[in-house]
UniProtKB/TrEMBL annotation:
Protein known as: L-arabinose transporter permease protein
Mode of membrane association: Multi-pass membrane protein
Any one GO molecular-function label of the UniProt entry: transmembrane transporter activity
Assigned keywords, A-Z: Cell membrane, Membrane, Transmembrane, Transmembrane helix
InterPro entries referenced in this protein's UniProt entry, alphabetically: ABC_transp_permease
Keyword Transcription regulation listed: no
Species the sequence originates in: Duganella phyllosphaerae
Length: 323
């Protein structure tokens, strides 16, 4: 394969299919951190929900039962994280990292114990979520450009892809145009003022963490039930951390966080496309070097934008009610 064989269309379609993992996790982290809780445990919740979703979908041959089971375990982890951070007022970074490390090992051990396939689950086969074919696809498929955009770029994706993209305006509306969003943002910016206004800060943060757990579960389910069709050890490959980076890139705002997720999804698609390709001047790059692309972009983004990003003022600070 040569450089000329690369197709922009394939990269765009791959971008759309890569982005949902980051979008769900990014919106989950956004909810948690706008309420004042650092959610560095996204990676662990993605792994846990990916494993449970794949295992239950395989055993029941029903993708929706797998998604529901993944949601349950993600919410349980989010609740545990909230208990440590909110009720016990523990170190939020340590709690999140502990969840990441524990789930990285535990999912592998449990998968090996149950399925005896080297720490992965069997292929879930027909339990994978099917792609949606939009109405009228066959009629306009052969129309130049428009037919391709409608059939492949807009259509032909799993229902979770459409849910991820629909989630962005919904989160924006919830945060900036509802009472729930106003209280949530107040807890992250000035919890004492929110408490004085009658907001139960602890309850608001718990609720937000549960919502974050639900959203994060979709990332894991998408990885195992849509993209791969099975669970593999550490298959999230840093998606939780990339989602946090997208959130910093987006200055803790839904629309800009979404753009950050698309950016990382695009570079992940480029990474896949250039494997085995003879590039101009440099020739064929080693696979290990190509796999570094998204993470190099992450470092560049953090180095360039960290100073310009303004986090919620009470982020990471346990709330102690004034007497």
């Amino acid at each position: 394969m040569t450089f000329d064989d690369l197709h922009l269309g394939s990269i765009l379609v791959s971008t759309v299919r890569n982005a949902p993992v980051l979008i769900f996790a990014g919106m989950a982290g956004l909810f948690a951190e706008r309420s004042g809780v650092i959610d560095i445990g996204l990676e662990g919740k993605i792994l846990a929900s990916a494993f449970v979703s794949a295992a239950v979908a395989y055993l029941t041959q029903n993708p929706w039962s797998g998604i529901a089971a993944g949601m349950l375990v993600s919410v349980l982890l989010a609740t545990l994280q909230a208990y440590v951070a909110i009720t016990q007022k523990g170190n939020q970074l340590v709690a999140g990292i502990a969840i990441n490390i524990a789930m990285s090992g535990l999912t592998f051990v449990v998968a090996q114990y149950i399925f005896q396939q080297g720490g992965r689950t069997p292929d879930i086969g027909s339990a994978r979520l099917f792609d949606v074919v939009l109405p009228g696809t066959a009629a306009i498929r052969d129309v130049p450009f428009i037919g391709w955009v409608y059939a492949h770029l807009i259509g032909g994706h799993s229902v979770l892809v459409y849910l991820a993209f629909a989630l962005v305006p919904l989160v924006h509306w919830l945060l900036y145009h509802t009472r729930f969003g106003l209280r949530l943002r107040a807890c992250g910016e000035n919890p004492h003022a929110a408490d004085a206004a009658g907001v139960n800060v602890a309850r608001q943060r718990y609720t937000t963490m549960i919502v974050a757990g639900v959203l994060c579960s979709f990332s894991g389910a998408y990885l195992s039930i849509v993209q791969s069709g099975f669970f593999l050890r550490d298959m999230s490959a840093g998606a939780g951390y990339l989602a946090l980076t997208a959130m910093v890139f987006g200055n803790w705002r839904p629309l800009y966080t979404f753009l950050g997720c698309l950016m990382f999804g695009f570079f992940a698609a480029v990474q896949i496309q250039i494997e085995g390709v003879d590039l101009p001047v440099v020739g064929r790059l080693p696979g290990s070097l190509i796999q570094m692309v998204p993470y190099v972009v992450t470092v560049i983004v953090l180095a360039g934008l960290m100073a310009k990003s303004v986090a919620p003022k009470a982020l990471g600070t346990p709330f102690v009610k004034s007497r």
